[in-house]
Amino acid sequence: xxxxxxxxQLAPAGGLRVAIAVSPSxxxxxxxxxxxxxxxVAVTLGRALAGENFDLVLPWGTPDERERSDRIAAAxxxxxxPDQAPLDVVARLLAGARFVVGVDTGLLHLAAALGVPLVxxxxxxxxxxxxxxxxxxxxxxxxxxxxxxxGEVVDAVGKTTR
Length: 162
Fold this sequence. Notes:
Blueprint (H helix, E strand, L loop, with lengths): L2 H8 L7 E5 L8 E2 L3 E2 H13 L4 E3 L5 H12 L4 E2 L6 H10 L2 E5 L2 H8 L4 E5 L4 H4 L7 E5 L7 H11 L2
Parallel strand pairs: 1-4, 1-6, 4-5, 6-7, 7-8
Antiparallel strand pairs: 2-3
Helix pairs in contact: 1-4, 2-7
């Protein structure tokens, strides 16, 4: 498949009204306060966005991440799990996204460097040492062993994307 074909598969018809949720890798598993986890964040966010004409895209890199993204997408009417794509294609998708929500991963940092509005979730590292750097609007939530709640993440998305 050509890069253009992959990007077309990722982006909805009529332009990018896409929110990207960057799923944690197995090494970055975490529990958000109140017993929720990344799936809870993504599902809550996806439901909130469904009425606002957004598609939630859940990129992945490993088979475990694909399985996790598939489980999240199964709970949401407007969520999509794209085929695996080269980094330059994913970078173009990130650059056109309305916003990105994710944990401390390479894709989150790429989105920050591209100036995409984002909400960064930290739970296993210190954001003052490894936080995203960029010129777009961003909220950095949580800290090592101090994760945010699902409500805090959803509130931060609303404030960051206004």
